[in-house]
Specification:
This protein is of the alpha+beta class. The chain contains 20 helices and eleven strands.
């Protein structure tokens, strides 16, 4: 009779085990495909948050050696510049690079586990958790490429030193660590950890000294370059006040609480099945974080005092990666734990590092069984299998929550003291895109992609339009105040739809919405023309109200904006197909006074 082995030592196994292994990796692939679906359905091709300060080559390269929001980000700036060159600043290239980084990290970790003869359970688990959609912010804001990038680079740094041979492995790890150091501020920890890892692995003294000098150089160069813009303070975002002292017991307690929530948030997301937290669930989240931290500390200390174990490449690699991840969390807690509310530690932008913390801890459990007995390897592997199954099972629900329209729910306003939970939904982000295309100051819609939209924001939209940068890279999207180009087939019949009563906006302009019917549902773009035939606004198909509608992009509803200057009296709505140069009239809307 065949059986499936969960032994942490890699084995070929029989047909049952091969089938189980194949199914496990297929589940990892499915998790990745669902992540790609979420990215594709939430991508709207406009700048987000910090990206508003990096719209042109001048802004990217003019401060190339300066810090941006407290980070020296030379390596990501090169990708941002390439995105302007190849994708008109739509962030499409940034998102592709983000996904490729995760794929590369998954391949590396599977290879590392195979080198250490860790079971297929751990290999597949690494794939599943890396492709988990929990860090949704890092898959929607292309600027967060640097967040994903720095952790992937750290992983490659330690793998190069642990598994690389001789001087080649050492110098490769130094080169990657240097790249991490100019990706984000926490990247310098990779350089700092080179020498301790070289010592733990039992490398020659000259390698340890070389690693120490290289690490010091990486830190020194960073400190020389770390000038320029300051980080965005939590007092700018939340209703919090600057702390009087970081050494008070209250401040230390806040930092410790922040650290626990930071690390525990991914597990809490599964336990409570929500991204929103109450005071009680925050306490539980912090406890979960410290359970993981104590487990990681126990395993690391156990290995440190066992020379034979710590010199194993897999153990040294995982200990260094854990130190990097926990160090990042601790530095973040020190910098933000006092002034920021503790629930902000659960923001999904920290999810990549928190996910990798749990992944690394689980792999270290597999690499360091408590005893040389079958049960000591089988029980952790079974727990890992269940953990991975739960993560994979949560993926469809997270994806659905992000791509299905949440309706007309209010958007967090920044200083409301609430999380930006609504900001990730495609429905809210569609409104931001049409507001930009229509040069309309819809503060509620724009707050999901920028901190404080104001009158100056409209001037920024004009710059994007003049330079034909996203979302104005296509001719049809940059026609505000102009008629449709000659050659368009202006159909006055054949399409039908409705337009609900436009809503005046305090900043000028109108918010419009309605439905498409019949043949009009074949179109994805909508323009509003004024009585002179000039484009007065833009609209888009609304996100799906059900998962099926969201996947097929088949919601008959639409939403958009009309510009205050070009819209007056009434507008005529046309469904637009720029590729076929067809515009099909389907409704009219009377615009009330502002």
């Amino acid at each position: 009779m065949t059986s499936v082995s969960l032994d942490s030592r890699q084995s070929n196994g029989g047909i049952a085990e091969r089938l189980a292994r194949s199914a496990w990796f297929a589940l990892g692939g499915l998790t990745g495909l669902l992540l790609l679906l979420m990215i594709a359905r939430t991508f709207i091709g406009v700048p987000h948050w910090d990206s508003w300060g990096l719209l042109t080559y001048r802004e990217i390269f003019g401060g190339f050696f300066d810090s941006l929001n407290g980070h020296v980000s030379m390596a990501p700036r090169l990708v941002y510049a390439a995105d302007i060159w190849l994708a008109s600043g739509s962030s499409a290239l940034n998102m592709v690079v983000t996904v490729l980084l995760l794929v590369a990290d998954a391949v590396l970790l599977v290879w590392v586990c195979r080198q250490a003869r860790l079971s297929w359970v751990y290999q597949g688990f690494a794939v599943i958790i890396l492709f988990w959609a929990y860090p949704v912010a890092n898959f929607m804001s292309a600027f967060n490429l640097q967040i994903v990038g720095v952790f992937v680079l750290a992983t490659f740094t330690f793998a190069a030193l642990a598994f690389g041979k001789g001087a080649k492995g050492l110098w490769l790890s130094i080169a990657i660590a240097a790249t991490a150091g100019v990706t984000m501020a926490n990247g310098i920890l990779a350089g700092f950890l080179l020498a301790p890892l070289a010592w733990a692995l039992g490398r020659p003294a000259r390698d340890i000294v070389t690693a120490a000098i290289a690490g010091a150089a990486i830190i020194g160069v960073y400190l020389l370059l770390a000038t320029g813009s300051a980080d965005v303070l939590c007092t700018d975002v939340y209703d919090t006040q600057k702390a009087q002292s970081y050494l008070s017991l209250q401040s230390i307690g806040s930092m410790l609480g922040y650290l626990g929530v930071y690390l525990g948030a991914p597990v809490a997301r599964i336990v409570f099945r929500t991204a929103s937290f109450t005071d009680t669930t925050l306490i539980v989240t912090g406890v979960l974080g410290y359970i993981g931290l104590l487990t990681a500390a126990f395993l690391s200390l156990r290995a440190l005092f066992d020379a034979e174990q710590r010199r194993r490449p897999i153990v040294g690699f995982l200990m260094a990666l854990l130190a990097f991840l926990v160090g990042t969390a601790a530095v973040t807690a020190y910098g933000r734990g006092v002034e920021c509310p503790v629930y902000s530690a659960a923001t999904s932008r920290y999810g990549t590092s928190a996910d990798m913390f749990w992944m690394t801890t689980v792999l270290l459990v597999g690499a360091l069984p408590l005893a040389d007995r079958a049960w000591a390897r089988t029980v952790p592997a079974l727990g890992t299998l269940l953990f991975g199954l739960v993560i994979a099972a949560s993926q469809p629900f997270i994806v659905k929550a992000m791509i299905v329209s949440p309706g007309l729910s209010p958007v967090a306003t920044g200083k409301s003291g609430e999380q930006f939970l609504g900001g990730g939904h495609q429905a809210d982000r569609v409104g931001a895109r049409t507001a930009i295309l229509s040069s309309t100051l819809d503060v509620a819609a724009l707050r999901v992609i920028m901190l404080e939209p104001d009158a100056r924001t409209l001037a920024t939209f004009d710059v994007l339009r003049e330079k034909r940068l996203a979302p104005f890279q296509h001719r049809w999207s940059a026609l505000l105040g102009q008629p449709l180009p000659r050659g368009y087939d202006m159909r006055q019949r054949g399409c039908s739809g409705t337009a609900s009563a436009p809503v005046p906006l305090p900043g000028g302009g109108w918010r419009i919405a309605g439905t498409l019917q019949g043949s009009a549902t074949q179109f994805d773009h909508i323009v509003a023309l004024n009585s002179a035939g000039q484009v007065a606004g833009y609209a888009m198909r609304s996100p799906g109200r059900t998962l099926g509608e969201a996947v097929r992009n088949s919601n008959p509803g639409w939403q958009g904006h009309v510009n205050a200057r070009w819209g007056a009296g009434a507008v005529t709505l046309y469904a637009l197909d720029p590729d076929e140069k067809t515009a099909c009239r389907f409704a009219e809307a009377d615009l009330p006074g502002i």
